[in-house]
Design goal:
Radius of gyration: 19 Å
Order of helices and strands: HHEEEEEEEHEEHEE
Helix content: 10-25%
Largest sheet: 6 strands, antiparallel, barrel
């Protein structure tokens, strides 16, 4: 009689095998700065999304190179295309929109995007993420949220690059963070 086959932990618990590969959650902030016509006043808008079922590979420290030590703090965030995305405040489901469509949308409440862009790009926004559930601190003006989050959490990353991997058996995004 053959020995029984040993099952991995996710399969023993009747969970998807992907659940073990993507154990983390991150809070994604899409931040847009709008300047009204004929005025110098700017308004900052934030769209905050909780992504459940991602993998965050982070590193801290310094790497030696030929010019001395170079900072190596950073992260790679792996986001499956079917990730569970909900509004971090209300819990309502959100859908992905490509960056150009997202930034030009009037109502961004039901959507999220991934954008690697300058923090000061006119007409566009920027994206950063925090490991875990990190809602905006109460009473903090939108333009100060990132600074407050960096003071409260160790793992806050500005999106520096995005690679779309929509082929093979697992379509996903690889997001670089610094």
């Amino acid at each position: 009689m053959p020995a029984p086959k040993r099952l991995s932990r996710p399969r023993r618990l009747n969970a998807s095998p992907a659940a073990g590969m993507f154990p983390h959650a991150v809070t994604l902030y899409n931040v847009a700065v709008r300047t009204g016509r004929g005025t110098v006043r700017s308004t900052v808008e934030s769209s905050v999304t909780l992504l459940r079922g991602v993998f965050l590979d982070a590193s801290r420290g310094a790497d030696p190179d030929r010019n001395g030590l170079e900072g190596a703090d950073g992260a790679v965030l792996y986001v499956p295309s079917g990730v569970e995305a909900v509004d971090a405040v209300t819990g309502e489901p959100k859908a992905y929109l490509p960056p150009v469509e997202f930034w030009s949308a009037g109502d961004k409440s039901g959507f999220w995007t991934l954008a690697a862009s300058s923090r000061s790009a006119p007409g566009r926004g920027f994206t950063f993420f925090v490991k875990g559930l990190a809602p905006p601190p109460e009473g903090t003006p939108p333009e100060e949220v990132r600074g407050r989050l960096e003071a409260l959490y160790d793992q806050v990353y500005h999106v520096s690059r995005i690679k779309e991997r929509n082929f093979g058996g697992l379509a996903h995004w690889e997001i670089g963070g610094v």
